Amino acid sequence: MDNLKVVGKKIPKIDAPLKATGAAIYIQDVKIPGMLHGKILYSQYPHARIIKLDTSKAEKLPGVRAVVTAKDMPPNFRIGIMKDNPPLKSGKVLSIRDEIAAVAATTPEIAEEALSLIEVEYEELPGIFDPLEAMKEGAMLIHEEAKSNILKMPWRLICGDVEKAKQESAYIVEDTFSTQWVTHCCLGTSGCVAHFDMHNNLTMYSNTQIPSLAQNDFVEALNAFGLKNRRVRIIQAVIGGGFGSKLDTYAYEYIAILLALKTRKPVKIIFTREEEFFATSPRQCTITKISHGCDKDGRLTFRDVEMVLDNGAYTSWGATTPSVMMLPISSLYKVPNVRYIAKCVYTNNTYCQAMRGYGNPQATFAIESSLDQLAEKAGIDPLELRRINANEPGEITPQRFKITSCGMKECIEEVYKRLNWKEKRGKDNGRGVGMASLIHVGGGARVYKSDGCGTIIKMDDFGKVDVFTGASDIGQGSDTVIAQIVAEVIGIPIEDVNVINNDTDICPWDVGVHASRTTFVAGNAALGAARKIREQILEAAGKILDEDPADLDIKDGMVFSTKNKEKSTPLGKALRKIHYTLGGKMLMAEYFYDPANENFDKEFKGNLSVSYAYGAHGVEVEVDRETGKVKILNYVAAHDVGKAINPLLLEGQIYGGGLQGIGYALGEKMVYQNGRLMNGNFLDYKIPTAKDVPPIQPVIVETDEKDGPFGAKGIGEPGLVPTAPAIANAIYDAIGVRIKDLPITPEKILAALKAKDK
Amino acid sequence: MKKEITFNLNNEETTVEVDPKWTLLYLLREVLNLTGTKEGCGYGECGACTVIIDGKAVNSCIFPVLEAEGKNIITIEGLAKDGQMHPLQKAFIEKGAVQCGFCTPGMIMSAKALLDEKKNPTDEDIKEAIEGNLCRCTGYVMIIDAIKSVAAGR
Q1: How far is B44 from chain A (nearest CA, A)?
Q2: Ordered structural domains, chain B, with CATH
Q3: What is the set of domains in chain A, with CATH numbers?
Q4: In angstroms, rounded to a whole number, what is the distance separating the alpha carbons of residues A446 and B106?
Q5: pLDDT, tens digit, for every residue of A22-59?
Q6: Cα dihedral sign for B97, B101, B107, B112?
Q7: Closest C-alpha among A657, A507, A656, A498 to residue A18
Q8: Minimum Cα–Cα distance from A14: chain B residue
Q9: For chain A, is the Cβ count within 10 Å smaller at the N or the C terminus?
Q10: Which ipTM was obtained for this model?
Q11: pLDDT category, B152, cuts 50, 70, 90?
Q12: What average pLDDT does range A49-77 have in this prediction?
């Protein structure tokens, strides 16, 4: 491992030159001759009956090519994991983002004008905007056909005997924590271009994080349109940010397909920033009741968690985030008895989606805040409490996760050391330190039947390599990590590797960019394909050099004999020989890697991931008692990543995740009032700017994961998982008040200080 | 009614017919096909559309197109010379300042305007110069490093 040439190096992202020169083509930049522009009309009310919908004036506007409503969609066609969401709504609207009609016109301006000519009359209905209200017996049903507003997804994990453990615990704490809606704020807004050929095959230019699954969704849609057996091709433009927002297919995409079908022209829909705020799906808000216990020595005895999630009016992957919340709830630290019950509840609010961490940030906020309370009650230093209970390699957790590599203790020690914990803790001087740890999937996550990714490698006559991977790049750098792995295995410079990752006609299957799985899963797929092609090269070169392939090696594009260094041939020459020999062959290899992880069983138990990522964040804050403002003086983010394949990109994930986490902890909140978003713009919904960057120290802990490519585990999401509780804990140390609902704003701090002084 | 305007665009005298209702961003992206300049919000809050007008970083999405008359305008496409990238572009690439890249062109233009004006900017100067350029991926740390490295290296 010590003589690695490409892996482990700080190699710049390979598509960065395109992006830094403005040459990268994002979905906004895609233009096709004859292309029309689509715009969507949304509901004016969060809950209402549509009395009248008249599109005739819009249809007559010059430049308008099509106006569509629910009656143009196939009857009973629904999207989303519960199939509860018609892409165009009729009868009743259930949320402010409900799509009612859409227009395709020659320019976006004409399309916009046409929307204003569509006449809609509503009968406004009372709505339910509080999940606790919606859960009550006899509450109005959001979906009339459903028996209850509580989704039929009984999230329930029971490990050991919590009630018995409660009896036997020396110390017990119980409290309730809540989190807010926050949104991804990808700088590039959502969009697509739908384009049919003469045979009704569909090409979709897309931003998706799930090309293979989106292809499946659109094939289903074409079937519903009566277009059986058609091809769907997904071409991804350069993606202007993902963070989980593009893990599903959305109404606007089906509307673009419908408009393209109606007009026989390519139709482009690009969200405005306003739409991006209110018509995409945020991270769900949660209400979490949690209790923890420990024995007299501080060893955890149980964790008991009840949670309510606001599902909004329709169902996307947000409703399944409790499956990932189970991971920290059952397995963050050693805790023998665990109970977790979660309910997702329909309301007339916006519906939710995956966002970086997939539920883990919300769960970890409750767990790590509660643990600090427990430490105080037990009279143990909170960092010490975490040392006592830290996870270890070889452990099998109550949910049956098999912990392989685990650097949690090392991460905690890094925080202790770099934060100067002993000196800084408990000073009661307006400054304080706090910490929180994390566990996340780090070796794929079997949430679907497959967790696989395919890779194809082909070589040209000059020793250059094309790698076709199913793994999408959303800016995180999977293109570069895959190229590094391939270059390292074959023995060529990274400049000789070209990664193609954005076209379902060319690229093999992959389940999607989610669960921090790409380095691990796509990396292993690339590793497997590269090994295969290396074997083929050595075999061919063996014939040329008259050597046993086992005695050959490749370095810097030369194949040479390890026994006799004189004997060598340029890689290109060997390849040409293979191509130009009678009965020659093509140099190509494929590999499909599907990790040996498990789907949960009926009790939500099983080894979801092949390996688990760990980390610990420590924060020093200063709190102004007059203004309630929190200043971060020092931020240590230690992460067990198995092996850093590219420390440059990895640190980028830690910095970027960390600042997103700080935004989540200290400021970001989508303000919904009675189902309407009140702050859907960058002025009122503030994401961190360059001025908000505190001193962050990323610390990479390497534990050499046996199943990871070159020892690596995932790092995409962990960077923001423990941020909010680490900050909340530090604030408590600084001023003695605990904020239990995110975000931690100056107003809440001042109110808490006032209440404490009373 | 369309009007003709003339301005210097990326070192070239440019005359175009424009609709007075257009923004400069619309002209650049939709008419002149200079799509390197991005639209992230359309109301001057995210900085993805930043170009340099007479030495100042400007949000082109709220800049009325008629006001471009007689101005000297540089976009991201105007930075590379003779096939060589601008030092800021190289630094952004090498320092890891580019992830999804959507904010990158605007960010680089804001940085260029700063470095053209100040020889030795402080960290605070840099943060101030790019405060109006939002980035959701990088946490800004490597962007700030990249800008610093160019300032230090000249």
Answers
A1: 9
A2: 3-78 (3.10.20.30), 87-152 (1.10.150.120)
A3: 16-23+452-593 (3.30.365.10), 31-126+190-270 (3.90.1170.50), 286-446+600-757 (3.30.365.10)
A4: 39
A5: 999 999 999 999 999 999 999 999 999 999 999 999 99
A6: positive
A7: A498
A8: B93
A9: C
A10: 0.99
A11: very high
A12: 97
